[in-house]
Design a protein that fits this description.
The chain is built from 14 helices and 11 strands. Helix content is 58%, strand content 15%. Helix 4 runs antiparallel to helix 5 and helix 9 packs parallel to helix 11. Strand 10 and strand 11 form a beta hairpin. The protein is of the alpha/beta class. It is elongated.
């Protein structure tokens, strides 16, 4: 038996009783048959109670509970503190307002309580980060160390693509990601949907993502948390991530090019795993020597192609005849392209 059904029964009984009392009073005023009026009013009250009760009891409470569940903890604490401060101010001015003549002495204290409560909540939620920064600065001046990370380092939202990619598990072990990595429930649901796909490739990708997420929760240096925060009026997962990033003021960790561009256009910071991988590749300058293994032909006549450990392509002039052989080469040019870094080289003299 659901709580909504219980409230419907209670509401039906209460309003039926109210209808009975009202029907008898109306019958007396109209000098009519009280049984008829009582019956009609009882049935009408029971019907109204059965239909209307959930809309004024259970459902508003459920909507409020869902809203509180989606709010960040800092915003919730700020709202409660603002409400308390507003009620304190309203209490201080309630006494002088109660000295006014009727009906102002009854109306104005109630209006002031509602007004100052609203203002307190609005001010604290709007300026919550500024107030937090002031408190942190005050603690620093007193010689204490801040235990709260900076706003940009508090949370990092993980995208579905970066979880499936898997490199985030290795990056998280290095400690370069500060703050808590958040995985929204809708991202987890998308991973599960991919893992349940009838297409074998998609199914394997989804299962890999779930395995990576499990590994992150067990082994990551940085804490990982599943959150129920959602954006109710948005359906697409990428749009939900962008709106949630705006709400929390935190970056999105992804390797999805389209999500990267859209998020940047909307002012949401993005941490791209592919850009990180390109940035940490070995830096080689023209004239440096290295040893590579030629594995295939190049596009031009006589060229051979090799790859470094980080995946960087090395195009070797006159390297075709050294396929499947280790070769000492000298770097002649380094080219940065949209796909990554490409190195051109030639065999060392004497090869």
């Amino acid at each position: 038996m659901s709580i909504e059904f219980i409230f419907r029964i209670i509401g039906m009984m209460v309003l039926a009783l109210v209808g009975l009392t009202s029907g008898i009073r109306v019958a007396r005023l109209a000098d009519a048959d009280p049984v008829l009026y009582a019956t009609v009013f009882v049935l009408l009250g029971a019907l109204i109670g059965l239909v209307v009760t959930p809309w004024i009891t259970v459902r508003p409470v459920g909507a409020l509970r869902n809203r509180i569940r989606q709010m960040p903890a800092q915003q919730l604490v700020a709202g409660i503190f603002g409400l308390t401060m507003g009620l304190v101010v309203a209490l201080l001015i309630a006494f002088p307002l109660s000295l006014l003549p009727e009906p102002y002495r009854y109306i104005l204290p109630l209006i002031s309580a509602i007004l100052f409560s609203y203002l307190g909540i609005a001010v604290m939620i709007t300026r919550q980060q500024d107030i937090a920064n002031l408190l942190e600065g005050w603690r620093f001046l007193r010689g204490g160390e801040s235990e709260t990370p900076a706003r940009d380092g508090r949370y990092v939202l993980l995208d579905t693509s970066v979880i499936i990619d898997g490199r985030i598990a290795d990056v998280s072990q290095t400690g370069f990601i500060s703050g808590t990595m958040l995985v929204p429930r809708f991202v987890l649901n998308e991973l599960q949907h991919i893992a349940d796909s009838s297409d074998m490739l998609r199914r394997n990708r989804g299962r890999r993502g779930l395995d990576i997420l499990n590994k992150l929760q067990k082994d990551s240096v940085t804490s990982v948390r599943i959150t129920d925060m959602d954006v109710e009026d948005v359906r697409e997962v990428d749009d939900k991530l962008i709106m949630l990033g705006k709400r929390l003021g935190c970056p999105i960790l992804t390797n999805d090019y389209n999500l990267n561009r859209v998020a940047e256009l909307q002012g949401v910071p993005v941490l791209n795993i592919n850009e990180l991988a390109n940035a940490v590749k070995a830096v080689l300058l023209p004239g440096e020597a290295l040893q590579v293994k030629i594995i295939q032909e190049g596009k031009e006549i006589g060229q051979g192609v090799a790859y470094l450990d980080d995946g960087t392509m090395v195009v070797v002039e006159d390297g075709r005849r050294y396929i499947n052989q280790a070769l000492d080469v000298v770097v002649t040019k380094v080219l940065q392209t949209a796909a990554g870094r490409m190195i051109f080289a030639k065999p060392e003299s004497g090869n």
